[in-house]
Amino acid sequence: MEIIESTQNKQVKEWKKLLTRKGRKRQRKYLIEGLHLVEEALRSKAEIEVILIREDKVGDYSELLDIRKVSVVLVTEEISDLLSDAVTEQGITAVIKSEESADKIVGDKPVLMLDQVQDPGNLGTLIRTADAAGFEGVIIGTGSVDVYNPKALRSAQGSQFHLTIIHDDIENWITTFKDKGIPVYGTALDKNAVSYRSIEPQNRFGLIVGNEGNGVDPYILEQTTKNLYIPIKGQAESLNVAIAAGVLMFSLYQ
């Protein structure tokens, strides 16, 4: 195995840039770290460029590397720390190619659309919940946090490998779905919204949830088939976006 020992190594500097959105976009790659995420990547069809293992952890991860053959590079503890965004790094990181395929979303199953969701923890939880609910994919609209943000990836827990995720314009997808006869539901608290309980469970639809503070953009809400709300029995004014989306995803798709 190749061993890299200097933080000034050209390749290490390029990997370090993957901790920024600009660097990820330019290189079309991103980092994942930790045993669970790397194992999920190995067991999925993720395109792994290389796995980086801290040299003192080789023995701990030898069985993991038997899952499938990939390129492995050993690095020092200093380099491993440099590339880590976690509080406690586990000494294993992978570089993943981030090519997105919009043509994989056809609407045969429900699709979640995110309008300006800015908290990476919420984004990751939304992806994980969409995976658990059996959705086809997640479309991340303009103004939302990057799905490859390290905090979002930790929150998603590997679900990004199980369904199609793309960054794209939501309005175009609303038109595409409606042209196919697929309803698109927004989420809102205004007087024109209807209770989600009035909608019969179905197999094909788009569901839009929005910004943590402002909800879905009013202009987008004007283009939906219907806008839904969740009746609240207690005194809370609203639900966290990830919780609300979870209720709707599991209720509308059965």
Walk me through the structure:
This protein has 254 residues and is α/β, with parallel strands linked by helices. It has 2 domains: 2-97, 2-Layer Sandwich (60s Ribosomal Protein L30, Chain: A); 102-252, 3-Layer(aba) Sandwich (Alpha/beta knot), CATH 3.40.1280.10. It has 9 helices and 12 strands. It starts with a strand and ends with a helix. The model has no long low-confidence stretch (mean pLDDT 95).
Write the layout of secondary structure elements.
Layout: E1 2-4, H1 10-17, H2 21-27, E2 29-33, H3 35-43, E3 48-54, E4 72-75, H4 77-82, E5 92-97, E6 111-115, H5 120-133, E7 137-140, H6 150-156, E8 164-167, H7 170-179, E9 184-187, E10 194-195, E11 206-210, H8 218-221, E12 226-229, H9 241-252
Parallel strand pairs: 1-4, 3-4, 6-7, 6-11, 7-8, 9-11, 9-12, 10-12
Antiparallel strand pairs: 2-5, 3-5
Helix pairs in contact: 5-6, 5-9
